[in-house]
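For the sake of clarity, the format in which proteins appear in this thesis is described at this point. The record quoted next illustrates the convention:

___
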Amino acid sequence: METTNYQLSFFGKGGDFFKIKIVNIIFSILTLGLYYPWAKAKTLSYLYSHTSFEDQPFAFTGTGKEMFKGFIKAVLIIMVIYACFIIGVMQHLPLLALLGYILLLLILPIAIHGAYKYRMAKTTWRGIRFGYLGSRAELTKLFFKDLFFTIITLGIYGSWFQIHLRSYILGNIKIGNASFSYKGNGATYFGINIKGLLLTFITSGIFIFWWKKEQFEYYMNNLELTQGDKKVEFTSTMTGGQLAILTITNMLLIIFTLGIGFAWVEVRTLQFVARNITITGNYSFDELQQTQQNYTNATGEDISDLLDLGFTI
């Protein structure tokens, strides 16, 4: 069967992105942080619209109003959790502090689930919406089971934990009627991390670039998009040397511009990542059909932001 090479690219410009960032910072300061949801919506809208697949840009359709509602809920939830913990510690009430810690743990899988459900529903390509179809109950069960094993193994099980989360979440993401899947395994990922940790220590930190390169490679090389017997595969072409040069030059750019170059750093990084992802397969994207539902609750997305969980897995 004939295989097609597909093109992913990011064509944003540092100057344009800098203007958006500066305006967002100014309005966020003037509104004491209340502008944050609109700032995030504008940032995501720019980044998505300047990322294209097969010369067709993605779109982020979320709004500041939707994210503001989620932001307020997220702030209240986080305030209650931290209040329990801080008051418990300061007033020597260990049960109250423990309650705050338990609530924080409980909110993590809920935040991850909500973040993916909202972000995917607000991501489109050629008008076709993405969707996350995972179950909050199933994800929570998986999260705490693997967290338990990670704790009792003193962190060793963490590689399996991460791969299981990645497999579950990616396995429940669709674009229209096509489905993503992830086929990595914890044992191989553990080997990558053990080797990376040891060689990074032996080389006084130098190997960390090659370690990060192997982690990214394992992420991309096990990702697939399928519909029936048709498949699209992702492959990383990144090298450790390239990543080292990018990281070092980005650091120098930040240092010598006194932080002003942060927008150019983000743009350069996204261009680098897109340039080093190869996508091949035998799927005709004209066959994509709209099957995913809209979703407007951004609470999970905002909790994820406040807890600095990040979005990728």
Q: What stands out?
A: The first strand starts at residue 4 and ends at 6.
